[in-house]
Fold this sequence. Notes:
heterodimer; A: mainly alpha; F1FO ATP Synthase; elongated; B: about 130 residues; mainly alpha; two-stranded antiparallel sheet; ion transport (chain A); membrane (chain A)
Amino acid sequence: xxxxxxxxxxxxxxxxxxxxxxxxxxxxxxxxxxxxxxxxxxxxxxxxxxxxxxxxxxxxxxxxxxxxxxxxxxx
Amino acid sequence: xxxxxxxxxxxxxxxxxxxxxxxxxxxxxxxxxxxxxxxxxxxxxxxxxxxxxxxxxxxxxxxxxxxxxxxxxxxxxxxxxxxxxxxxxxxxxxxxxxxxxxxxxxxxxxxxxxxxxxxxxxxxxxxxxx
Lengths: 75, 130
């Protein structure tokens, strides 16, 4: 039973870590690029938004599986 | 709070929502061939993706333009964490309050919608005005 909770914690933790690193880099690059070329800010925001959607796909599925483990398998 | 500047980017949120709901209906109908419970669960799985994602889009495009770059990035981070928290809460609510639930249909539809949502935003991009 405890192993299920540990598995869910690892899934959510690793997902959060990866998303955090990815979004940190993404946001940093957006600020950097906007400072360098302010006229491109809107196009850069669109690109960042598209990348953000692709970046959080796997962690989102991970959250779903982790919730299943916690509330159905262990519950 | 700083004043919002004029909308520069046209976000096709209504179009995205319409396409996502159409796709969700098709997937739910396909699952309901298996059983009505599977179709219902698939629809719920799709809604778990659509609702937090619509919130995310709304929040990300609150601030636009180089003058609001810091607010833009701050809002991106806030919107992302809210989206993940909302998704977790919705999943927890479905697994605890909905009885019975067809888990494979729910998770499969959610996963398909996540991938399709990313592709959809790449295919139909927000239009920037100069």
